[in-house]
Amino acid sequence: MTVREDAIRRADGSDGIYGVVDKPTYALVIPLDGDRLHLVEQFRYPLGMRRWEFPQGTAPDLAETPPVELAQRELREETGLRASAFTELGMLDVAPGLASQRGHVYLATGLTEGAPERELEEQDMRTAWFSRTEVEKMISTGEISDAQTVAAYTLLLLHERR
Q: What does the angle CA 40 – CA 126 – CA 90 come to, to the nearest 5 degrees?
């Protein structure tokens, strides 16, 4: 991650500074098994609390990794799940007013369980299956507040309407 300040010229011709956070592209995975969705819960330091969300992450050391391979890796590392099929649902911009980070959203199906391969900072992560009704209630009550997870769930709903 890098933080930079760019000297810019605004539309009115005045000079200004624009702060930008550069982070690598990430992949988010929606593990779906029938009516069940698999979520991870982890401590989010900037918020000072634990949050439920879909598995997601980056691989700064593997910047050229195809997004679907990154999705496979995140699913395996965080949940232990493997999927026989990945369907790309869309792209999300994390915070386009201040960050360059973009994310690919995948639906993972044909799931089999295995042991997670978590990184050191993920050792306190928990995982669980939830019904769609439970996930929607968690979103509406704020128990799930991760913007990428909420947006990804919307992409799933739109995909299913096609």
A: 10
**Residue 10: other Cβ atoms inside 10 A:** 9
- Range 3-28 average pLDDT: 94
Every domain of the chain and the residues it spans: 23-161
Tell me yes or no: is domain 23-161 CATH 3.90.79.10: yes
What span, in angstroms and rounded, lies between the C-alpha atoms of 48 and 42?
Answer: 11
CB 60 within 8 A of CB 24: yes
Instruction: Write the DSSP string, the chain.
Output: -EEEEEEEE-TTS-EEEEEEEE---EEEEEEEETTEEEEEEEEETTTTEEEEE--EE--GGGTTS-HHHHHHHHHHHHH--EEEEEEEEEEEES-TTTB--EEEEEEEEEEE-------GGGTT-EEEEEEHHHHHHHHHHTS---HHHHHHHHHHHHHHH-
- Taking the model in full, what pTM does it have? 0.91
Distance CA 110, CA 129 (A): 15
Q: Which residue has the tokens 């995140």?
A: 74
Contact 33, 111 (CB under 8 A): yes
Is residue 145 very low, low, confident or very high in pLDDT (cuts 50, 70, 90)? very high
